[in-house]
Design goal:
mainly beta; six-stranded antiparallel β-sheet; about 10% helix; globular
Length: about 100
C-alpha cells in the first residue's frame, strides 16, 4: 500500500512513522490498523477531505496514533494524512509494518 503525505508538517509525520517502522501494527478491526506513537497531530487543518473513490487512508486517529483505515472507519476527529492505494493482492495484517520514503 502506498500514498503521499499531504500535510504542512510532513517532516514531523515522517519522524512519527520512522519511530514505529520496525514495530508490527496493532489491529482494532479488519480494516483499522494502528501504531502507537508519542506524538500529536498537526495544529493546522488537514489538506485532505474524504473522497468516496478512496478506499484507504493514512491518518492520525482520535488517540493521535498513526493508523491505516478504510474510508468507512474514518471518524470526524481523525486527521487525514494520505490517500492510500493498495496493489493487487495486498492485504493488511498485524504483521504489516509502516515505512516512509522522502523524495525531493
Amino acid at each position: 500500500m502506498k500514498g503521499e503525505i499531504q500535510c504542512d508538517n510532513d517532516e514531523r509525520v515522517a519522524t512519527d512513522i520512522q519511530s514505529v517502522k520496525d514495530k508490527p501494527a496493532n489491529r482494532m478491526y479488519a480494516d483499522y490498523f494502528y501504531w502507537s506513537i508519542n506524538g500529536t497531530r498537526p495544529s493546522t487543518p488537514s489538506k485532505l477531505s474524504e473522497n468516496e473513490k478512496i478506499k484507504w487512508y493514512l491518518l492520525y486517529d482520535t488517540n493521535d496514533n498513526i493508523a491505516v483505515r478504510s474510508r468507512e472507519r474514518v471518524w470526524y476527529r481523525d486527521y487525514l494524512l494520505a490517500e492510500m492505494f493498495a496493489e493487487d493482492g495486498f492485504s493488511l495484517s498485524t504483521h504489516c509494518k509502516i515505512e516512509v520514503f522522502c523524495s525531493n
